[in-house]
Amino acid sequence: MAGLVGFGISLAMIVVANLGLPPWDVFHQGLSKQTGWSLGRSVIIVSGFVLLLWLPIRERPGIGTIANAIVVGLVLDATLAVLPENVESLAARIGLLIGGIVINGVTTGLYIGAGLGPGPRDGLMTGIAKRGPSIRLVRTAIEVMVLIAGAILGGTIGVGTFVFAVAIGPLSQIFIPRLRL
Fold first, then answer.
1. Which residues lie below 8 Å from residue 136, measured CB to CB, with a gap of 6+?
2. Helices 90-113 and 159-178 meet at what angle, rounded to 10?
3. Which of these, 10, 143, 141, lies nearest to 151 by C-alpha position?
4. CA-CA distance, 69 to 40, in Å (whole number)?
5. ∠ at Cα 65 (60, 66), nearest 5°?
6. 8 A C-beta contact, residue 57 and residue 128
7. How many domains does one find in the chain?
8. CB-based contacts of 37: which residues, under 8 Å, 6+ apart?
9. DSSP class of residue 154?
10. What is the distance between the alpha carbons of residues 94 and 96, in angstroms, rounded to a whole number?
11. 20's torsion region: left (phi>0), alpha (psi -120 to 50) or beta?
12. Which domain holds residue 127?
C-alpha cells in the first residue's frame, strides 16, 4: 500500500510540475479533458478497461493488481487537491518533476517488490510478452500508442515526458530488486 500511495503522490507531483507527463498519464489527462472526469477517476476507469484486456491473454490479477487499479487514482486526486494548481518557479517545477520521477521509481519497486500482483498496465505488458514479443517491444509499442492517443485527446507532452521515459527504466531496475520481499 505504501508503494501505491507513493506512486499516486509521485504522479501528482509530475502533473503539478507541468513539464510533461508520463505516456500513460498523457492519455489519462487527455481522457480527463474530454470527459470532465478527474485525472484520478480517469486512471481508475482506464485501469478497469486494461484489466479486461487481460482476459484474452489469460492473466490473473492479484490483490495488489486490484489495489493498484483503485488506490493510485484516489491518491492522485487527493494529492492534487492539496498541491497548488500553478507553480510559477521553474526551479520548483523541475524539483517536482525530478522528485516525482525518483519517488515513482522507488514506489514502483515497493509495489512490485511486494509480489501481490502487477499493476494493470504492467500485467498487460508482461502478459503479451509471455506470448512472443519481447518486453522491450511490447512496452515501447504500448507506451507509443497511449502517448499518441493522449496527445490527440489533449494530454500534456513536454520535456518531462521524455525525462520520465528515459529515467523510469533504470530507476525501476535499481529499486525493484532492492525492495523485493
1. none
2. 30
3. 143
4. 10
5. 105
6. yes
7. 1
8. 31, 45
9. T
10. 5
11. left
12. 2-178
C-alpha cell, 26: 498523457
Amino acid at 61: P
Q: Which residue has the cell 525492495?
A: 179
Q: Which three cell numbers stand for residue 46?
A: 482506464
pLDDT in tens, the chain (181 residues): 999 999 999 999 999 999 999 999 999 999 999 999 999 999 999 999 999 999 999 999 999 999 999 999 999 999 999 999 999 999 999 999 999 999 999 999 999 889 999 999 989 988 898 888 887 788 889 989 999 999 999 999 999 999 999 898 888 889 888 998 7
Grid cell digits, residue 131: 506470448
